[in-house]
Amino acid sequence: MKILRTTLLGLVAIGVLAVGAIYVTGNGALLSMGWAYAFGGPSLPFNPDDAVDPPDYADPKNWAALPQRTGVEDVTPAGTSTASKQGEAPVDVFFIHPTGYLGGDNWTFSMDANTITEENTQWMMANQASAYNGCCNVYAPRYRQAHIFAYLKGPEIREEVLGFAFQDVASAFDYFIANYSQGRPFVIASHSQGTHHGVRLLQEKIDGTPVAQRMVAAYLIGGGIGQDQFAEMQDISLCDGPTELRCAVHWDTYSEAAIDTADAAGNVCTNPLTWKLNGGLADQSQHVGAVPISGEFQIVVGGSRPATGMQFEPLEGAIPNMLQAECKAGVLFVTDQSGTGFDAGLGSIGGGNYHLLDYPLFHMDIRENAKRRVATYLGAMPSELP
Question: What is the model's pLDDT at position 265?
């Protein structure tokens, strides 16, 4: 098994590994990449005219999360001392969700709210975006996300479809800055396909502009970011400590059982137990806590499916000191989760890949570090934040 940057661009729904990769369905069955190719996906070539009209971000329905309304992104782990600060925080987070669009005839999502794709987006709000509600007002745009098969048809179609989807993310960010931000500092956060868009957002909309000084940090998690993607940035670097500002963190999580098979990938690896770039082994005592997943991520490949009425229970309490972690060859290796609740159903997607657990395994580490960086930016103690 080779761990390569181009194949770590997998989505939260499935994840893409190297040749011979495997996929997980909702019932845990495994499908080979060869089967997935044979399955088909939307027709080629990609035609932008087949997409629905671009979303109007002045309309609240085109936001998966807004601090002005209550949503699943407001949930906090049971026993957490810091409540959600929606509408009260002095800092915002712009969260770019990963892919939940796995079945459909078009290369980009229809924006239909009555679909399992939209329920998957809500899963992301509950289990990923919620990690930032202790520091920040949460803003998360819905967008015409790329179909999962964009990752299976080669780099040309991938970049074409993802480039189309990025237009929405860029438009949402422009609207956020002009109408919601009101000059406040902000955090950029993402996962998987969202991370692909997040890096481009840093490059094209933030770095080298006046708003760069307002960026606290970027949590661009999961998706195989290469260190070379930051080489030409003027204002934004890679974080190498827990309080550094105007910098980015990233990791791709694997089981330590796969550590001897990792080839140098040149990827960014931040150890979220120490927040050090290419951080060495950090033991379990440094793990702030994992949080069990709420709700079910619906992995149904092929065909557009209506919403199922998915419900999201309150987040359970954090589990601290559960794992150790270290960076090697641009990959984050953690204590194997076989036999734990985290490896059931949505755990490993094959080859020890914990792409789907990039957030849940480190939910509290992310939560506390985001608060710490925000406090550093504001020159305050975390306890002094409203």
Answer: 74
Between CA 332 and CA 219 the distance in angstroms is 15
Q: Is there a contact between 366 and 272 (Cβ–Cβ < 8 Å)?
A: yes
Average model confidence (pLDDT) across the chain: 87
Residue 219 main-chain phi, psi, to 5 deg: -100, 85
Across-strand partners of 221? 191
User: Sorting pLDDT into bands at 50, 70 and 90, what band is 83?
Assistant: confident
Q: How far apart are CA 11 and CA 355, in angstroms?
A: 8
CA distance 38 to 361: 33
Concatenate the DSSP letters of all residues of 20-71 into one string: T-EEE-TT--EEEHHHHHHH--SPSSP-GGGSPPPP-TTSGGGEEE-TTS--
DSSP 135: T
Apex 330 CA angle, 328 and 335, nearest 5: 50
State pLDDT tens for residues 362-374. 999 999 999 999 9
Token pair for 141: 């745009």
